């Protein structure tokens, strides 16, 4: 049976699933990477993604438009991170505690609202969901075509964000300023620039991306909302930012490793190999813990990560 | 310089700045001409940094007017100060270590999406050529020496178009050679019409300025033309009494060996920090370590304090091998350690003075009652330390992060001097403190010596070394190149050794 896994068609389907599974995690991780580059940890990613997933679903259900659902999810993510930003940047409340509170908010609010909207929460209606959009020519490339170029638009967006965030961080004036804020905010402050404004922008961008990632879970694949359906993806995204050294390309690689493990366990379960499925399910998370343990130093971490800026 | 010489570059009128009840600047008025080097002199906590911060828009004064080139300026933010042509080099470096020199200079400037790095590099090289600053735009700031970081800070301010440059104690961290370079740079700045405000506690530097303004407890005592006054006049204005620089001292007693290094070597990150150091220090003796910073002095002291472990060789404290002891165990044996970087290694900025004074010894009986900290005891001893070191503070509860630079240094000195029963490791003890305090610190060091404490003193101020040491050792690239009794040591013998020129047969 294990030999079945080496068949080309199976390899292609596992790798295509890897890319699909990577989409929401990559979106959230790239957003979190930008936020952390400004020196702010958003530990509320899980809750923000969950609310993104929920509002995309409910938005698409009531408006009948998938894209409106996506926009609503992003607005929701943006608003949640705006609240977070106000707490930790303006009021300088402890970042980790505030993030945890955001998770509780996302979890509670989505379930409550789901129950309020549909009398029978166990049997919620489905929405349509996005189809794959094969890219002309590219999708015909043997092997790579079906893996990379026969995906959903949001997947293309997520992968294009890798070079985009790289260009932003390392080639633009704003990227340099953002990195400066994370390393030594005073260095920017004494040049007469607004530190808080840059942190707000970075955190809200992170929220928009978490909302978008959440939306992919409902209107991008499941077509319905299930309580706690993010299932640790927000946390995984946070780990990925660390494992990916706060850099876009390593973040992409780390995302792919975790997603591959997830896709593999789905496939193994599918063909009925006799391994307890809980073990398989745990694989990406065990790998995440190993990745953290192996990364001994925090080289690459913004020096002022988690530390609020006071002018003294 | 012909047209502008009539209008001052800077005119400050009746500037007042309060922190709660404390008046840090009290009705200060002064003017500075283009191309003038103007020194601000005053004891620790006199309000020099506060005055600069008001000019740079970092603090908002309660009252006062500021005019730049004859135009009234509202300096409510650094952005406005920069736009008015004010530049500032802060008392502590404000750099991003993981950025290159170029990135540190250009970040926060420019417009549009991308920065024109080629043009920026060109301008930076032009500036550095014009003013004689040597900087390599593509090096990482983390790899720079302290002096090189200071040049980057100056270029940063000039790059923003400063016509008035405020330098807050730039020489406190520079070697004497680097300070000379700085004065050469200042000459260039002056020649191009840039006015410079220099804050320094070093009288020989102050004497090189055009005019001096003296602050005392926030008030302007007066502004004088430097060539009309003597050092003693300035000291009188600043402290209100003459400061004696000499202390009576007894002959070195032949105490027992308190500390001995035997063949100690240490390499770290591909660099040799200590090379076969062998040295004995007797109880009641002061050995001064002369040398340019970065030649292993820090590591020498850190090895004794237990902060780094030598690769080979042994260190004995009063006959006991301390190679395997923890930092805490070594400190408990009566070893005090004054680190060179006060805010990084010496203090917790968010702790109060009282808390910082018991830091690392809070387990001691004196500060405890049962399992609890004894508030009354810590407060009482903090009040004593504040009084005897004349720390300018609102009380034992004041956060150390709010102290002026020199006053923060005094808190460390108070703690470590008290801790040192047998051995005191002192790295740059007088960095950033005013001459009144230098006199006091010298007195305290000699008193500790009389009490039989052994003292290892690292200082770049040869004045400190000559005034205090019984023996003087010169370090270069981790090696002790020579050790002399004080009466045999003079600049002519020590200077070449500091530069690594071993004399005579030793080649
Ligand atoms: N943020 C603050 N809150 C309260 N008091 C402050 C604050 N900043 C400075 N002070 C106090 O104002 C006084 C002046 O401090 P300032 O830093 O200007 O001194 P300074 O002349 O630069 O001294 P030094 O030579 O030691 O650097 C000090 O007594 C200091 O404790
Ligand atoms: Mg100061």
Short description:
The complex is a heterodimer of chains A (312) and B (507). With 312 residues, chain A is mainly α.
Features of this protein?
heterodimer, A: 312 residues, mainly alpha, ABC transporter involved in vitamin B12 uptake, BtuC, 70% helix, B: 507 residues, Rossmann fold, six-stranded mixed β-sheet, binds adenosine-5'-triphosphate
Can you lay out the helices and strands and say which pair or pack?
The complex is a heterodimer of chains A (312) and B (507).
Chain A lengths: L7 H30 L7 H19 L2 H25 L4 H23 L15 E2 L9 H5 L1 E2 L1 H19 L1 H11 L1 H5 L5 H28 L10 H11 L4 H23 L6 H18 L18
Antiparallel strand pairs in A: 1-2
Chain B lengths: L9 E10 L2 E11 L4 E6 L5 H8 L7 E6 L2 E2 L5 H6 L2 E4 L11 H6 L10 H15 L14 H14 L4 E5 L7 H16 L3 E5 L3 H4 L4 E6 L2 E7 L5 H9 L17 E12 L2 E12 L3 E5 L6 H9 L6 E6 L2 E2 L5 H6 L2 E4 L3 H5 L6 H6 L9 E2 L2 E2 L1 H14 L16 H15 L3 E5 L7 H16 L3 E5 L3 H7 L2 E6 L2 E7 L5 H8 L9
Parallel strand pairs in B: 3-8, 3-9, 6-7, 7-8, 13-20, 13-21, 16-19, 19-20
Antiparallel strand pairs in B: 1-2, 1-4, 4-5, 9-10, 11-12, 11-14, 14-15, 17-18, 21-22
Bound molecules: adenosine-5'-triphosphate (ATP) and magnesium ion (MG).
Keywords (chain B): ATP-binding, Nucleotide-binding
Protein name (chain B): ABC transporter ATP-binding protein
- Helix coverage percent of residues of chain B? 25-40%
Please, how many helices of chain B?
Answer: 17
Number of strands of chain A: 2
Q: Name the helicity range of chain A.
A: 55-70%
CATH topology of chain A: ABC transporter involved in vitamin B12 uptake, BtuC
Low-confidence stretches of chain B: none
Look at the helices and sheets of chain B and give the structural class: alpha/beta
CATH superfamily of the largest domain in chain B: P-loop containing nucleotide triphosphate hydrolases
Q: Let me know the average pLDDT of chain B.
A: 90
The CATH class label of chain A is Mainly Alpha
**Approximately what portion of the residues of chain A adopt beta-strand conformation?**
under 5%
Largest sheet of chain A: 2 strands, antiparallel
Total domain count of chain A: 1
């Amino acid at each position: 049976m294990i030999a079945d896994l080496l068949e080309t068609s199976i390899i292609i389907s596992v790798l295509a699933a890897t890319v699909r599974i990577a989409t929401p995690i990559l979106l959230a991780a790239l957003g979190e990477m930008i936020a952390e580059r400004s020196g702010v940890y958003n530990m509320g990613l899980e809750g923000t993604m969950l609310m993104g997933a929920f509002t995309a679903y409910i938005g698409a259900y009531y408006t009948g438009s998938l894209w409106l659902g996506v926009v609503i999810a992003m607005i929701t993510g943006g608003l949640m991170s705006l609240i977070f930003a106000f707490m930790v940047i303006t009021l300088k409340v402890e970042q980790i505690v505030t993030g945890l509170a955001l998770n509780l908010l996302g979890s509670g609010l989505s379930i409550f609202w789901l129950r309020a909207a549909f009398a029978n929460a166990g049997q919620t209606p489905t929405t349509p969901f996005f189809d794959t959009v094969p890219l002309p020519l590219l999708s015909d490339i043997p092997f790579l075509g079906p893996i990379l170029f026969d995906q959903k638009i949001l997947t293309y967006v997520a992968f294009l964000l890798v070079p985009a965030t790289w260009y932003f961080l390392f080639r633009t004036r704003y990227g340099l300023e953002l990195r400066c804020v994370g390393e030594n905010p005073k260095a920017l402050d004494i040049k007469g620039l607004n530190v808080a404004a840059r942190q707000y922008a970075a955190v809200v961008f992170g929220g928009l991306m978490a909302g978008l990632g959440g939306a992919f879970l409902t209107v991008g694949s499941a077509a319905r909302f299930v309580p706690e359906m993010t299932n640790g993806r927000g946390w995984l995204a946070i780990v990925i930012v660390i494992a990916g050294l706060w850099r876009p390309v390593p973040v992409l690689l780390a995302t792919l490793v975790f997603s591959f493990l997830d896709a593999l366990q789905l496939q193994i379960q599918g063909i009925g190999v006799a391994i307890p499925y809980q073990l398989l399910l745990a694989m990406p998370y065990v790998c995440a813990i190993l990745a953290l343990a192996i990364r001994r130093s925090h080289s690459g971490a913004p020096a002022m990560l988690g530390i609020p800026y006071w002018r003294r | 310089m012909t047209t502008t010489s009539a209008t001052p570059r800077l005119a400050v009128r009746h500037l007042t700045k309060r922190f709660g009840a404390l008046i840090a600047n009290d009705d200060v008025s002064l003017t500075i001409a283009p191309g003038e080097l103007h020194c601000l002199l005053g004891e620790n906590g006199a309000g020099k940094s506060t005055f600069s911060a008001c000019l740079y828009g970092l603090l908002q004064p309660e009252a006062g007017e500021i005019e730049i080139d004859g135009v009234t300026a509202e300096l409510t933010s650094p952005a406005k100060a920069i736009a008015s042509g004010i530049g500032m080099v802060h008392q502590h470096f404000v750099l991003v270590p993981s950025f290159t020199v170029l990135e540190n200079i250009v970040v926060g400037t420019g417009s549009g999406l991308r920065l024109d790095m080629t043009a920026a590099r060109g301008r930076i090289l032009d500036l550095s050529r014009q003013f004689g600053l040597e900087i390599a735009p593509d090096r990482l700031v983390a790899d720079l020496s302290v002096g090189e970081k200071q040049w980057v800070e100056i270029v940063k301010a000039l790059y923003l178009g400063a016509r008035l440059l405020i330098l807050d104690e730039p020489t406190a961290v520079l070697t004497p050679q680097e300070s000379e370079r700085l004065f050469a740079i200042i000459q260039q700045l002056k020649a191009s019409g840039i006015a410079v405000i220099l804050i320094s506690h070093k009288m020989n530097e102050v004497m090189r300025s055009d005019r001096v303004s003296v602050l005392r407890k926030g008030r302007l005592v007066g502004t004088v033309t430097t060539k009309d006054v003597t050092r003693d006049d300035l000291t009188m204005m600043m402290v209100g009494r003459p400061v004696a620089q000499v202390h009576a001292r007894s002959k070195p007693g032949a105490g027992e060996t308190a500390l001995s290094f035997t063949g100690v070597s240490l390499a770290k990150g591909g660099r040799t920090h200590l090379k076969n150091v062998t040295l004995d220090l007797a109880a009641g003796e002061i050995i001064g370590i002369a040398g340019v910073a970065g030649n292993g002095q820090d590591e020498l002291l850190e090895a004794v304090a237990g902060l780094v472990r030598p690769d080979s060789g042994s260190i004995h404290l009063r006959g006991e091998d301390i190679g395997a002891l923890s930092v805490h165990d070594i400190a408990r044996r009566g070893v005090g350690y004054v680190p060179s970087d006060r805010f990084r290694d010496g203090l917790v900025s968010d702790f109060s003075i009282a808390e910082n004074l018991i830091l690392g010894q809070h387990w001691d009986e004196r500060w405890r009652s049962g399992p609890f900290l004894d508030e009354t005891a810590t407060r009482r001893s903090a009040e004593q330390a504040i009084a005897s070191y004349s720390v300018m503070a609102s009380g034992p509860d004041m956060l150390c992060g709010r102290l002026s630079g020199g006053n923060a240094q005094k808190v460390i000195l108070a703690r470590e001097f008290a801790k040192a029963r047998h051995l005191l490791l002192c790295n740059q003890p007088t960095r950033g403190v005013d001459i009144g305090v230098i006199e006091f610190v010298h007195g305290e060091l000699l008193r500790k010596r009389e009490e039989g404490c052994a003292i290892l003193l690292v200082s770049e101020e040869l004045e400190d070394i000559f005034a205090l040491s019984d023996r003087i050792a010169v370090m270069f690239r981790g090696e002790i190149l020579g050790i002399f009794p004080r009466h045999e040591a003079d600049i002519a013998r020590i200077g070449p050794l500091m530069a690594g020129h071993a004399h005579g047969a030793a080649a």
